Fold:
Amino acid sequence: MSNASTIRCLITAGPTREFIDPVRFISNPSTGKMGFALADAAVEAGWTVDLIAGPVALEEPDGVILYPVVTAEEMYHQVDALFDACDILIMTAAVSDFRPVTQHAEKEKKGDASMTVEFERTIDILKTVCKRKAHQTVVGFAAETNNVVDYAKKKLTEKKMDWIVANKVGEPGAGFAADTNEVILIAADGSSAKLGPTSKAAIAKELIQLVTPISS
Ligand code: CTP
Structure:
């Protein structure tokens, strides 16, 4: 059995924002609820928790060290700085996949014509840090509207994770912004467990028990 007091957990939560100019950005509907519920459950399990959060309107969970970030680049640098010391990384964050190629320093005036914004890929945080994965257990989330399990399994393999939580989004009662959720936890060996539908707090508790690192 692991000694719970020795487990150092790194959790990312919420969306990131990628700015076009100081008053406009691209983002997604993530509220951070699942990640914050996981942080609460991990603290309750006796783990040391570093929580990296994008812009969310949630209270800081008791007992965590909170690192607020805004952009995917900032989230990457914070994960990169804390990854080596963690025993388990849980990437709940809905990281923006694209950012504007140009971020204007001043507000762009709209004019009469339509506007075209060119986007470039942001760094894939999980994929990048997993390249130097050593003792860490890595848990990702897959937010999908369709083919949920197939797409999740593909990500699990491609990003070299130990577990992935397949999460259907875009329907009431699960995914972004809801207080409840229904997920499928898939292991690298292909075995899976369905959790919910129930509160995000209950799912978080169960997830923390199931993904507990064996040797830390
Ligand atoms: N993720 C990441 N860095 C990114 C995008 C995603 O680390 N730039 C992580 C997420 O935190 C999540 C996992 O990768 O744990 C899967 O994220 P998801 O948005 O479901 O998938 P993508 O890899 O972005 O692929 P796609 O958008 O094509 O579904």
Remarks:
- The radius of gyration is 17 Å.
